[in-house]
Design a protein that fits this description.
It is built from six helices and eleven strands. It has about 325 residues and is an alpha+beta fold. It has a nine-stranded antiparallel β-sheet with strand order 2-3-4-1-7-10-9-8-6. The longest helix has 29 residues.
Length: about 325
C-alpha cells in the first residue's frame, strides 16, 4: 500500500503538470506541489498478484489550486466480460506557485460538460468550501474550547498519571503507543522542482503508521483509509527528517471491526539552528480482521494525558464528523 500511495501522488503530479501546459505544448514556470489529500478510501482489498490500473483527471479548479481524483482498478479474473473492479478512490489537491516569487499563480480552468463531470465538480466544490469552513471554525473553536469535552477526554488520562494502579487495564495512554524514525533526504527522492517528492513522504508515513498499528494491536492490521494529509512546508534534499507516530484514538463501537486512527507528524529538523518545524501531518485508519476479534483479541481504548493531546483528538474527531 505504501508503494501504491507513492504511485498515486506521482500520477496526480503528472496530471497537474499536464493541466498547466499551454496549447503549444510549453509549460509556464510554475511550482506545482501537493497541498493535501482529502480522502483515500479502500473500496475492496487489493490483491498482490493482480495488475492495477490507475486513472485520474482534474475534477475541480480554483484560482491557483486544483483537485485531482484518482481511481485504482484491478482486473477480476472471475468477473464476467473481464470487467475491472474499482478498489480505491483518492482526492489530491495541488497548488500552483510562481517559480520566481513563490506567490500563488493562476492555473488553467476547466468546464465540466457531462453529467458525471458536473457531479464531480460539485462534490469537489463542496469539499473546498468545507476545508475553508473547517479552518475558520478550528481557529474559533480552539479559542473558545468546550472545557467539558476536554475534561471528559482527560479524565482517564489523569488516573493513569496520578493513580496508575487504579487505571483502566483496557485503556492505554497515547504516548505509550508512539513510534518514530529519522533519515536524511537523498537526491534520488527529489521531484522535478528539486524538492523531496510528496509521494515518498506519504509512503514513509504509511509504513510507520502500519508498524505503529501492528505493535499496538498485536496482529497485522489491514488498511482502510488515508483520512487526510497536509503539506505545510517543502522538504529539501539533505534535510534531516523525523517522523513521529501515535495511535490518536480508537473507535470500538463495532466489536467486529474496531477502528484504529493513527497520526504521523513529519518534522524538518536542523540541529545546527536548534530548530524543528512541522512539514507534514498524515492521518490513517486501520482495522484488524474479524477472525482475530473472534479469537479473543481485544483492542484497547486510547486516552490523552495532556491538554495538547486532547485538543488533537477533538480536532481530528470533529474533522471526521464533518
Amino acid at each position: 500500500m505504501g508503494k501504491l500511495v507513492e504511485d498515486l501522488d506521482a500520477l496526480a503530479g503528472t496530471i497537474a503538470f499536464k493541466h498547466c501546459c499551454n496549447d503549444d505544448g510549453t509549460t509556464r514556470p510554475l511550482l506545482l506541489v501537493t497541498a493535501s489529500v482529502d480522502k483515500m478510501v479502500l473500496k475492496k482489498p487489493i490483491q498482490v498478484d493482480a495488475d492495477l490500473k490507475i486513472v485520474g483527471a482534474v475534477t475541480w479548479v480554483g484560482r491557483s489550486s486544483m483537485e485531482i481524483q484518482l481511481e485504482v482498478t484491478q482486473s477480476k479474473k472471475e468477473a464476467r466480460n473481464g470487467l475491472d473492479s474499482l478498489s480505491l478512490i483518492a482526492n489530491f489537491t495541488f497548488v500552483a506557485r510562481d517559480s520566481n516569487t513563490g506567490k500563488s499563480a493562476l492555473v488553467n480552468q476547466v468546464s465540466p460538460k457531462s453529467e458525471q463531470e458536473k457531479i464531480l465538480w460539485e462534490e469537489a466544490e463542496e469539499r473546498n468550501k468545507l476545508r475553508k469552513k473547517r479552518r475558520a471554525e478550528r481557529k474559533k473553536d480552539f479559542e473558545n474550547e468546550d472545557s467539558d469535552r476536554l475534561n471528559a477526554l482527560l479524565a482517564e488520562g489523569r488516573i493513569f498519571c496520578d493513580m496508575p494502579a487504579l487505571a483502566d487495564r483496557d485503556s492505554i495512554l497515547i504516548r505509550d503507543t508512539c513510534l518514530d524514525n529519522s533519515f536524511i533526504c537523498q537526491p534520488q527522492q527529489r521531484n522535478i522542482h528539486g524538492r523531496i517528492f510528496g509521494g515518498f513522504l506519504m509512503r514513509r508515513a504509511f509504513e510507520l503508521a502500519f508498524s505503529t498499528t501492528y505493535a499496538f494491536a498485536g496482529v497485522q492490521p489491514h488498511f482502510l483509509e488515508v483520512d487526510h494529509v497536509d503539506f505545510f512546508k517543502p522538504v529539501d534534499v539533505g534535510n534531516f527528517l523525523r517522523f513521529k507516530s501515535c495511535v490518536l484514538y480508537t473507535e470500538l463501537e463495532n466489536p467486529a471491526e474496531p477502528l484504529i486512527n493513527v497520526e504521523v507528524v513529519a518534522h524538518v529538523t536542523r540541529p545546527e539552528f536548534r530548530s524543528s518545524e512541522v512539514s507534514n501531518k498524515f492521518y490513517f485508519t486501520f482495522s484488524v480482521h474479524p477472525e482475530a476479534m473472534r479469537s479473543g483479541l481485544k483492542i484497547r481504548n486510547v486516552v490523552p494525558a495532556t491538554e495538547e493531546e486532547a485538543r488533537r483528538v477533538l480536532e481530528r474527531k470533529d474533522a471526521e464528523g464533518s
